[in-house]
Amino acid sequence: MRSISNNLAATSPAVAALSPSVAMSDGRPEDADERRWAMDAASGSLAAFDRIARAYQAPLMRFLNRRMANPADAEDVLQETFVCAFRKIGKYDPRWRLSGWLFAIAVRQAATHHRRLRIADGAPVYDRASDDPGPDAMAVVQDEHRNLWAIARRNLRPDQFDVLWLYYVEQLPMPDLARALGRSRLTTKVLLHRARQRLAKYLSDV
């Protein structure tokens, strides 16, 4: 199991005590099972696609709840992700993990959603949380000092948050991670390194 706390602690001792919950949920399908489901779904089996949706609804929603500005947006993007996956299931390459393919769609759908919701001055809704929070928001900010992922969401770029989450929480291997992010393996490794450095720097200053 990869530990983001250990990696950050190696970069900055100030974060050694932080231990976010990164355990994967039980019951994830085996690679052979998901490949069979994908092939059956591509052949027109709605039952097979339903198994895919049920298997990955929880991990996708967990990611999107952290990634999006609010639960309603996360739910919208989840639905858009599955609609897109259903339409494109015939293009899935079984050489790669189905989970990586689904998260690639979710990342793209989240980015598209953010672009649609840009506010008048051009700043994305993703960044609104940093502007003059009210009393309820201030309580959230105080709690964030005990929640590494909440801190990461507020202070990292979306692509930096994505690479950390997909690597540490979803445990995607580097080839699948690179494909999910639409990058080469080298640039994905660089992105991961810089995201860890940036998060460690912020945490060492709080």
In brief:
The chain is mostly helical and 206 residues long. The protein is 67% helix and 0% strand.
Segments where pLDDT lies below 50 for 5+ residues? Answer: 13-26, 124-142
Instruction: Return Rg in Å.
Output: 18 Å
Distance between the termini: 27 Å
Helical run tally: 10
Q: SS-based structural class?
A: mainly alpha
Q: Percent of residues in beta strands?
A: under 5%
Strand segment tally = 0
Major sheet characteristics: none
Mean pLDDT: 80
Which helices and strands occur, and which strands form pairs?
Blueprint: H1 4-11, H2 31-42, H3 46-67, H4 71-88, H5 98-116, H6 135-144, H7 148-155, H8 158-169, H9 174-181, H10 185-205
Any overview of this molecule?
Mean pLDDT is 80; it is low at 13-26 and 124-142. Helix 5 packs parallel to helix 9 (174-181) and helix 8 (158-169) packs across helix 10 (185-205). The chain is mostly helical and 206 residues long. It has 10 helices and no strands. Helix content is 67%, strand content 0%.
